Amino acid sequence: MRHTSHYVIATAIIVAAAPAIAQTSVTDEIAKYRQLLADGNPAELWEMRGEELWKKKDGPQKASLEQCDLGKGPGVLKGAYVELPRYFKDVNKVMDLEQRLLHCRMTLQGLTREQGTKTPFASAGNPSDIEALVSYITAESKGMKMAVTASHPQEKTAYEIGKKIFFHRGGAHDFACATCHSTDGQRIRLQELPNILTKSNAQAAYTTWPAYRVSQGEVRTMQHRLNDCFRQQRFPEPLYGSDAITAVTMFLAKNAEGGVYNAPALKR
Amino acid sequence: MAGDTDYGKAALDMIKSDFKSKGPATVEGVLKQDEAQRLCSEYPTERPKEVAEKIEAEQLKLVKYPDGAKYLGKWQEGEKIAQNGRGMQSSDPIGGTNGGNCYACHQMTKEEISFGNIGPSLYHYGKLRGQSEEILKYTWAKIYNSQAFTACSNMPRFGHKGILNEKQIQDVMALLLDPQSPVNK
Fold first, then answer.
1. Does A167 share its domain with A263?
2. Where's the active site on this chain (chain A) (predicted)?
3. Does the first or last residue of chain B, that is N or C, have fewer Cβ atoms within 10 Å of its Cβ?
4. Are residues A177 and A85 in the same domain?
5. Chain B: residue whose CA lies nearest to A166
6. Same domain, yes or no: A94 and A26
């Protein structure tokens, strides 16, 4: 079933992109194509697998994740994602979804950190439970407004550190996140780049992750998106579930406040 | 602002602890900022005139002009460099050949429609400017160290940071300036 849908999608992309000459029409065609597929996003398969994983007794402690507290109480998924990252009293720190999920897998299911971070991103023949779980959890916030408060002092600190990292220029190419994401209407090749400093752009960008990426045939999480940004920025590799990623995510999520959450989405 | 500085230090500490060197992309490489990188991080969007002038003057001094004033190589090679986006990423091999990836940000030829807009269009660059010594020197210096003329430019300092070698810059120069180059058709 997966293979069939990949084939259809790949064909549709080629058909949509090939006749387009001017850049605007390429962009328009991609938007049209996205709309066509909006009712049949393959991410639904990840959501279903995620739900099974959430409820399955697993790990050394043979426990499910159903008692995982993502900030709205044990097991409450509805609306949890639009309030993340947030401060968690039990660990006295700010966590994003992926960090918190790892925490639950360690504390409830008894996984070691190494086991919990072994396959954050799927590769050929090696699926990731995290991508499925994140798909399921985030889908439970569909249609809700982004409502990260950053009211706790530690949340404010995470936001400010995330902002500093966003503007930190370094490495071989002198790039910062801001190089590509602080001006309206910028494009790399034909790829439009959201200006994270404006509300509407930040909302449009943030509320559509995680996303099923047609080019990769996988649902990719926010951390995967950030990893890829850092790679292209010529930065070293961020550690999975690290505070640095949470801080940058906090900066992005807060900037996207008020946007209607609509993911897992579909991207090229 | 004291608070600001503290967040800055916390951010550096976090980069140090939460990133892992891989391939040519090292933690030290992003932590150890030079003065231009530090100032451009401190003033990301706007900066006082004197800060900008200081950066530009310092960076201009760092430009190395080519041996024997040989500015132009082969535009055909330059086109390959302009198309090549590889190099210096954590996924790249150490010591591999880097591209210039010019099309990521610039329009250059009529044929290539997939180009970005972070930098200005360079189509007809040589046709409009000719090949006076002044233009050759300016264009070289701009590729070698973009911040010699624009503090905190988004463009990498290709020569200064060792992304492109002298021969590669000569080839990119030819792409921009050779009358036979598709840039000038």
1. yes
2. 229 (cysteine persulfide intermediate)
3. N
4. yes
5. B41
6. no
Interface test with A, best of B1, B12, B15 (most A CBs within 10 A): B15
The average pLDDT across B51-61 equals: 98
Give phi and psi for B181, each to the nearest 5. -70, 145
Q: Count the helix, strand and coil residues of chain B and give each as a percent rounded to the nearest 5.
A: 50, 0, 50
Q: What would the mean pLDDT of B147-152 be, rounded to a whole number?
A: 98
pTM for the model stands at 0.91
Condensed to tens digits (0 to 9), the pLDDT of residues A25-61 reads: 666 776 766 666 666 899 999 999 999 999 999 999 9
Domain residues for the domain of A130 are 40-267
Q: Do the Cβ atoms of A167 and B41 come closer than 8 Å?
A: yes
Q: Chain-wide mean pLDDT for chain A?
A: 91
Q: Are residues A21 and A60 in the same domain?
A: no
Question: For A238, which of B3, B18, B104 is closest by C-beta distance?
Answer: B18
Judged by CB atoms closer than 8 Å, whether chains meet at B156 and A174 is answered as yes
Tokens of A254: 């807060």
Q: So what's the pLDDT on residue A38?
A: 60
Ordered DSSP codes for A163-207: HHHHH--BTTTTB-HHHHHSSTT-EETTEE---TTSHHHHHHHHT
Is A2 marked as binding a ligand? no
| pLDDT confidence of residue B149 | 97
Asked if residue A122 and residue A163 are part of one domain, the reply reads: yes
